[in-house]
Amino acid sequence: MLTTLRLMLALPISWLILEGNYGLVLWVAAFAGFTDGVDGWIARKLDATSRYGGIVDPLADKLLLGCIFVSLAVVGQLPWWVAATVVLRDLVIVIGAVTYHFLYGAYEAEPSLLGKLSTLLQIVFAILVLISQLTPLVAQTFLEFAQWSVIILAAASGGHYVFTWAARARASAAVLKE
């Protein structure tokens, strides 16, 4: 339920960004982050993982971040190419996973360290951009550094996922030929 709730928060967060209501966006995003943490804690503590949660949880994260980045680009707070890079990375990951599933069967969704770092940096960067709309405490040069860090890490982690999925596909194809 918490994962589904987080998935459903993507559109209200986008709408709030488009309306320029950055204070409320931060509260709703904090609530989404809280539900993500509680959901993960419950799953680990009660050993209550599910196939649904394993698939939808990362999709909810990707949808939330993608909607935030696209919305920030629409209102001119980010260049379009930054939002496109983040969304493209996530599309590559999802398309790779789905393709692997249909060609070779079930897979274990294992986020890489680069993937986790990329997602974390995207979250931190999005929060900083939102905060910068409310207060001048976030320096523009720091935002630019963070923006380039997001781009570099998104490209690196996206490339790593392509390499990983390709290696898995080759290994699965070799097993199927035997």
- Radius of gyration from CA coordinates: 17 Å
Question: Beta-sheet strand percentage?
Answer: under 5%
The number of distinct β-strands equals 0
What is the helix fraction of residues, given as a range? Answer: over 70%
Total helices: the number is 7
Explain the overall architecture.
The longest helix has 38 residues, at 140-177. The protein contains 7 helices and no strands. The protein has helices spanning 2-8, 10-18, 22-45, 51-74, 80-104, 113-132, 140-177. The protein is 83% helix and 0% strand. It is mostly helical and 178 residues long.
SSE layout and pairing:
Blueprint: H1 2-8, H2 10-18, H3 22-45, H4 51-74, H5 80-104, H6 113-132, H7 140-177
Helix pairs in contact: 1-3, 1-4, 2-3, 2-4, 4-5, 4-6, 5-7, 6-7
How is this structure best summarized?
The chain has helices at about 1-10, 10-20, 20-45, 50-75, 80-105, 115-130, 140-175.
Which descriptors apply to this entry?
178 residues; mainly alpha; 83% helix; 7 helices
